[in-house]
Amino acid sequence: MSDQNPVFIPGPTNIPERLRHAMNVPTFDHRAPDFVDFLAPLLDDLKKVFKTTTGQVVTFPSSGTGGWEAAITNTLSPGDRVLVARFGMFSHRWIDLCERHGLEVDVIECEWGEGAPADLYGAKLAADTDHAIKAVLVTHNETATGVVSDIGAIRRAMDACGHPAMLYADCVSSLASMDFRMDEWGVDLAVSGSQKGFMLTTGMAIVGVSRKALAACETATCPRCYLDFRDMIGANAKGGYPYTPPVQLMRGLRESLDMLLGEGLENVFARHHRIAEGVRRAVSAWGMTLCAKSPNLYSDTVSAIYVPAGFNSDALTELAFEGYGVSFGVGLGEMAGKAFRIGHLGSLTDVMALSGLAAIEMAMKDQGYPITLGSGVAAAQEYYRTTRPGIELRKAA
Q1: pLDDT on residue 241
Q2: Which strands sit side by side in the sheet containing 166-170, from one edge to the other?
Q3: pLDDT at position 235, please?
Q4: Domain shared by 76 and 126, yes or no
Q5: What is the CATH number of the domain that holds 246?
Q6: What's the CATH code of the domain at 369?
Q7: Measured between alpha carbons, how far apart are the two ends of the chain, in Å?
Q8: Domain coverage including residue 270
Q9: Tell me, what DSSP letter sits at residue 388?
Q10: Residue 190 three-state SS
Q11: Contacts of 354 by beta carbon, 8 Å cutoff, 6+ apart
């Protein structure tokens, strides 16, 4: 029965029963004439989540990493120069991917726990008077550290110096959970996946592509075949795929969009913020600190939490799993052994969040952490109890 417990990792996230049932359908013909009636509205509704009216959405059977690779290979050529900040494991992996494709990568090194530094991006771009930098890469939500960066500020820094580079954003762990504004922020390529805010299994890379990025496909020379935007967009326009699509997962994505748009995106964002704030109140009650250096950097989808000196965070997450059947995120990269992560995104309620806080508290108490059992849960309870949307507290007469 322990496999019925929710997971508190930052992805893949919990799958609602409604979505599991939506994917539990027989195989249907992706080359049948009516597939276009299914596919076109799906892609149009994805644009609403990216908040773009001018761009296109391209999907591939892949994880988010495939979306990264598609963004790079479709728009850049070996030897092109790109600018990126490294402030966590996932920004680091994007750098590694670029280097493997023969790009010249200009890295801004940042302390883990900080966000993408718009001022340093601006300085680097202003100094690039020959406009050798072809793309600016930013991780919107660094899943390893629980840090959200201001993509709009990066765009303003680019515009301030009149630099023509394209802007790429990794929004894998933020899209459909936190506000993302592709058109307003001038994002040319936005990379996400099915397994986080969309509450589905891993298996689809979902990429927002601007007109400028589509134009770049015509001159880019990085090799691509399976992940070619032009092949996919051409096939989509005719109501199909250039190869076999994951039809059951696409049925789930259709239902996910119905859930998200039915709840209302602003309500989805508010729900995530509220649940995240309860988790942060619990962390404070434990006397612990977040990896994120300041409140403006706090992610509403994942919190990375430092454990006290003398304790090993990997031992804590292992005990939580082995002893209580609950999964939490381990520390990655520089955070290994020093911090654990609580994922609070996707299909999650305040009641579910409380169960996770209670489970990790028990594991901490079992390992002798200097906490008072129930302190974090009580802090989150008080916040959730007094912030229920649309419900007035009843005071005793």
Answers
A1: 93
A2: 56-62, 203-209, 189-193, 166-170, 133-139, 81-86, 104-109
A3: 95
A4: yes
A5: 3.40.640.10
A6: 3.90.1150.10
A7: 44
A8: 2-11+264-386
A9: -
A10: strand
A11: 278, 377, 380, 381, 384
| CA proximity to 149, closest of 185, 116, 192 | 116
If 0-12 CB within 10 Å is exposed, 13-18 middle and 19+ buried, where does residue 87 land? buried
Could you tell me if 47 and 69 lie in one domain?
A: yes
Is residue 328 included in any domain, yes or no? Answer: yes
The kind and range of the H/E element at 128 are: none
Amino acid 2: pLDDT: 57
Q: Is residue 395 part of a domain?
A: no
Q: Which of 211, 243, 262 is the last residue of a domain?
A: 262
Q: Which of 220, 246, 262 lies at the terminal end of a domain, its last residue?
A: 262
Both 170 and 98 in one domain: the answer is yes
Taking the chain (397 residues) in runs of 10, the rounded mean pLDDT of each run is: 83 96 92 90 98 98 96 98 96 95 98 97 98 98 97 98 98 98 98 98 97 98 97 94 94 98 98 98 98 98 98 98 97 96 97 98 98 98 92 51
Distance CA 302, CA 13 (A): 11
Let me know whether 258 and 306 are in one domain.
no
Give the pair of three-digit tokens for residue 397: 């007469």
Give me the half-sphere count of Cα atoms (radius 13 Å) on the Cβ side of residue 252. Answer: 24
pLDDT at 391: 60
The predicted pLDDT at position 34 comes to: 86
Quote the pLDDT of residue 397.
41
Q: Is residue 213 part of a domain?
A: yes
Tell me the residue type at 372.
T
pLDDT at 33: 86
Residues 131 and 199 in one domain: yes
Q: Is residue 138 part of a domain?
A: yes
Same domain, 204 and 61: yes
Domain count within the chain: 2
Cis, peptide link before residue 6, omega less than 30° from 0: no
Please state, in angstroms and rounded to a whole number, the distance separating the CA atoms of residues 121 and 330: 30
Q: Is 212 left (phi over 0), alpha (psi -120 to 50) or beta?
A: alpha
User: How many CB atoms sit inside 10 A of residue 21's CB?
Assistant: 12
Residue 10, strand partner residues: none
57's CB contacts (< 8 A; 6+ apart) are: 43, 46, 47, 50, 206, 207, 208, 209
pLDDT number for residue 392: 56
